[in-house]
Amino acid sequence: MKVAFYSVKEYDRELFGEYSAEYEFLFLKNHLRQETAGLAEGYDAVCVFVNDELTRPVLEQLSECGVKLVALRCAGFNNVDIVAAKELGIAVTRVPAYSPNAVAEHAVAMLLTLNRKTHRAYNRVREGNFELNGLLGFDLVGKTVGVYGTGKIGLLFAKIMKGFGCEVIVYDPFPSDEAKQYRLVDQESLFSESDIVSLHCPLMKETYHLYDEETFAKSKKGFTLINTGRGGLVDARAAIEALKSGQLGYLAMDVYEEEKDYFFDDQSSGIIQDDVLMRLMTFHNVLITGHQGFFTREALGGIVETTVENLRAFEAGKELVNAVLPVDV
Ligand code: NAI
């Protein structure tokens, strides 16, 4: 089977390359867009990542190229028009879980950085400045932590925060039995009662700009928001206003709505044109990482393993246990 990989980094090439005896791989650095879809001509499958764009026109082009499978090497699938793929007879698979611990732990790392200001202390101490002014933090014990979405990652995050002695409250429209060990609340209560909110739901119509001007206004004054879910969950312009007024005390973002133009690439020699992103970077109480929540050795190993299993199942005509169907959208 011939598989064209888009948005390839060195680590993808190295890890997937171990299976090159089994498959004919084409490793492309390009992101998948209308302009680059033609590179998959003659390939049976494309293997793509979070910022590749699988819109209807791109999928139509891929179909004309002979592509029958889109193998996502990530969990989220908001970048794929699943209905169009189904209509074109293109199967879509994903990696539903690959060390959810990696993302949950990253969310905690971001929280601990912001609340104890270690990002500022690191720079300050290296300059020989041991002054403590401006580094005053807050204890996590006793704080109310709202977990929005209690799937694999949300539940792990909740467990860690419980270990810190926080009061964990959760919201999920389809709570599992495991989620029910925490206090289940409605959305409004989660917004208004939480000192810290962490987002772990998928990006969908219902969750697009979940945090907008209105939600910020009904949140606790000075609360902390952590987003390791998807950028579109937070209206970044509204976040800037909330930061300026002090309504939002701290913001951690591993994801950003317009990240596809910047994240995963070295932009240090160019001029970043996104004024919203640049404004966010000016706040000392905002921490941005470039979608690295998943980036641990363990998680990468899991991604490769499941993606290869998905390719094998497709090739053998077996049931695709990790298929994404229109009903999931
Ligand atoms: P999951 O599928 O196990 O859990 C998602 C949970 O969200 C489910 O419990 C579901 O019932 C709930 N949910 C569905 N609709 C909702 C709504 N309208 N409001 C609130 N909750 C809702 O997914 P998992 O593995 O826990 O991942 C969560 C999200 O994390 C993914 O959708 C993805 O966007 C993001 N992610 C980020 C990564 C990163 O590197 N930063 C890596 C992997 C995932």
TrEMBL record:
PROSITE patterns, per the entry: D_2_HYDROXYACID_DH_1, D_2_HYDROXYACID_DH_2
CDD domains noted in UniProt: LDH_like_2
Species name: Rubritalea spongiae
EC top class named in words: oxidoreductase
Assigned keywords, A-Z: NAD, Oxidoreductase
Entry EC no(s): 1.1.1.28
Gene3D superfamilies, per database record: NAD(P)-binding Rossmann-like Domain
Residue ranges constituting the D-isomer specific 2-hydroxyacid dehydrogenase NAD-binding domain according to the UniProt record: 108-293
Keyword NAD: yes
Family: Belongs to the D-isomer specific 2-hydroxyacid dehydrogenase family.
Annotated protein name in UniProt: 2-hydroxyacid dehydrogenase
InterPro entries: D-isomer_2_OHA_DH_cat_dom, D-isomer_DH_CS, D-isomer_DH_CS1, D-isomer_DH_NAD-bd, D-LDH-like, NAD(P)-bd_dom_sf
Pfam hit, one: 2-Hacid_dh
Molecular function as annotated in GO: D-lactate dehydrogenase (NAD+) activity
Residue ranges of domain D-isomer specific 2-hydroxyacid dehydrogenase catalytic in the record: 4-324
Alphabetized SUPFAM superfamilies for the sequence: Formate/glycerate dehydrogenase catalytic domain-like, NAD(P)-binding Rossmann-fold domains
